[in-house]
Every structure is written in structure tokens, then in C-alpha cells.
From TrEMBL:
One of its GO terms (biological process) is methylation. Its cofactor is FMN. This is Vanillate O-demethylase ferredoxin subunit. Keywords: 2Fe-2S, Flavoprotein, FMN, Iron, Iron-sulfur, Metal-binding, Methyltransferase, Oxidoreductase, Transferase. It comes from Glaciimonas immobilis. It is an enzyme of class 1 (oxidoreductase). One of its GO terms (molecular function) is methyltransferase activity.
Length: 321
């Protein structure tokens, strides 16, 4: 089944900070773009064939443009380097409809927003939406240095600047984020939202969980993850329920790779268990979940998994394919 795509033009490419560019995308035919909500992202189909997810960081009330922020990652697998070095103003790109796996909770009494580095992109959109709605919130934004902090001026000049605290790794000790002081006591009716590098997010979430924050008050979105591989990984089989074809998945291959080798293709994007593009229904068997896309509650149901990185605890998985 083909996925509908939107054709857009890069109207503006702007350097926001060291190694960070923003890209303003507009419709090529002048019509309004589909609506989106704070926390949404789009899949961007790059000229080199890769697909990457980027959060929308402009006001969600805007329908004439999408704005994304892209960090040039030193460990890039080709996505951010292409965006920085190849994509230029005037170029035509294809993108997905906006998706939101990181939405604001309606009716929350208070929101606590925590951003690390480029993870500010969805967090900024949330802050602007909460400010417009007159909702109670606070925002903490951490960066290695002021020179690497995207949107610093935009936030300082915003209507909600008094609700934001900036934290710099190279700054004085007293201005650094004290996670224990901030999260050491669970706050009733406060919803926590965090986005940033995995290590940063793990630290925030582990601190909150250790303090007893309820899981339903914790909201997060990973944009990268380390694919877990183990010397103990073994082979297993997957059975495709619709054709009854059985495919062996060797220990050194992913399910995606094994299926592709026999002509069965599942759409993929991040290949790290982050985006959910390849999410596949499991009819029988016990997946070995290695993704960061599904919640713990979703993983324990064992009725779906991410074949780009997850494996199997049982000798066979029967998939709804």
C-alpha cells in the first residue's frame, strides 16, 4: 500500500546554531499544508534515498509552512549530512503527512518541558502552544554551549521567556540542570515531557521513575537509539500468515534483512526501533523487543514488534503479513 506524500519546496535554509540548520518547507502548489499538533514530526525523503524523521518546530496554528531543525550528527548515517551539505533553498522534497506520537496531554493541570540539544524542536512547539492556550508550564533547555543552542533568541524574545531556564554544560555550576532537585519529588497533576539525546533522556526518566513519578505522567520521544546486538543472539523463523511462507532469520541478520532476501519488503526508516515505520503485527510467538518506540505496556502485550531491530524469544514468530 502506497503512503501519500506531500511535495514541498525548501523556501528557506537558515543556520540557527553551530551544526544546526532549520529548513522552512512550503507547498509547491501554494495550497495550505495539512494541520498538525504540537509534538508532531514528518518523514523527509532525502535525495540519497534515505528517509528521516524531523519534529516540526513552528507554531502548530500555521498552515502555510512546516519548519524543521536538523543537527549535523557526528555519527550520522547519511541523513543529517545530506540535509546540511546537499539540500539547499529551492530544492523539492517529498514528505509524509504529519504524525504525532508525542502529543500534549489535554487537560493537564501543569506541564514540565525538558529539552536536551536538538530535542528542543518538539518541546519548543509545545511551549508555544501552551503559552497561547494560557496553560501553566515551565521549560528547561540544556545545551553544550550557548553557541550550540538553537532558537535561543526566539525563546528570549517570546511571550513565555519567563517560564524558561537555560542550562549550559560549559557554564557555571549553579546554572546547570539539577535533575534531583527538579524531579526528586513527584508533582501531582504535572505531566513531564522530555526529548533529547538518549543518555540525557535516560537520566531524566530514570531520575523521575526513581522518585516515584507515575508512568502515565511521563512523556518522551527518542530520535535515535543504539541497536542492541548480543553474542547470544540465535537464529529463529518467521512465518508469514497470509502466504504461510516460513523464513529463517540468521543470528547476523535482522528480520527486515531476512525478509528482503526472499523478496518481502516492509517499509523502514530509522532502522533503530525509534520511528515505528516498520511496526508489524505479531499473531503468535514472543518477540524480543529492542525498540524505544513501543511503551513498556505495549511491549508486554507481544502483539506487535519492530522487525528492523527486534528479534524473537520463541523459535518462531507468526506475522500478519
Amino acid at each position: 500500500m502506497s503512503v501519500p506524500l506531500i511535495t514541498v519546496r525548501v523556501a528557506r535554509k537558515t543556520q540557527e546554531a553551530v551544526d544546526i540548520f532549520t529548513f522552512e518547507l512550503v507547498s509547491t502548489d501554494g495550497i495550505q499544508l495539512p494541520a498538525f499538533s504540537a509534538g508532531s514530526h514528518i518523514d523527509v525523503h532525502l535525495p540519497n534515498g534515505l528517509i528521516r524523521q524531523y519534529s516540526l518546530c513552528n507554531d502548530s496554528a500555521e498552515n502555510h509552512r512546516y519548519v524543521i531543525g536538523v543537527l549535523k550528527d557526528s555519527s550520522t548515517r547519511g541523513g543529517s549530512k545530506t540535509m546540511h551539505d546537499v539540500v539547499k533553498e529551492g530544492d523539492i522534497l517529498h514528505i509524509s503527512l504529519p504524525k504525532n506520537h508525542f502529543p500534549l496531554t489535554h487537560g493537564a493541570r501543569r506541564s514540565l518541558l525538558i529539552a536536551g540539544g536538538i530535542g528542543v524542536t518538539p518541546i519548543l512547539c509545545m511551549a508555544e502552544r501552551l503559552s497561547i492556550a494560557g496553560a501553566e508550564f515551565a521549560m528547561h533547555y540544556c545545551s553544550r554551549s550557548k553557541e550550540r543552542m538553537a532558537f535561543y533568541g526566539r525563546i528570549k524574545d517570546s511571550a513565555f521567556t519567563d517560564k524558561v531556564k537555560f542550562h549550559f554544560d560549559d557554564g557555571a555550576l549553579q546554572q546547570k540542570l539539577d535533575m534531583q532537585a527538579l524531579l526528586g519529588t513527584p508533582l501531582t497533576e504535572t505531566h513531564l515531557y522530555v526529548c533529547g539525546p538518549k543518555g540525557f533522556m535516560d537520566a531524566v526518566l530514570n531520575t523521575a521513575r526513581a522518585a516515584g513519578w507515575p508512568e502515565d505522567q511521563l512523556h518522551y520521544e527518542f530520535f535515535s537509539a543504539e541497536v542492541v546486538r548480543s553474542d547470544s543472539d540465535g537464529s529463529f523463523e518467521v512465518k508469514l500468515a497470509r502466504s504461510e511462507k516460513v523464513v529463517l532469520v540468521p543470528k547476523d541478520m535482522t528480520v527486515i534483512e531476512a525478509l528482503a532476501a526472499v523478496g518481502v519488503y516492509i517499509p523502514t526508516s530509522c532502522e533503530q526501533g525509534v520511528c515505528g515505520t516498520c511496526l508489524t503485527r505479531v499473531l503468535e510467538g514472543i518477540p524480543d523487543h529492542r525498540d524505544v518506540y513501543l511503551t513498556a505496556e505495549e511491549q508486554v502485550k507481544n502483539d506487535q514488534f519492530t522487525p528492523c531491530c527486534s528479534r524473537s524469544k520463541s523459535p518462531m514468530l507468526i506475522l500478519d503479513i
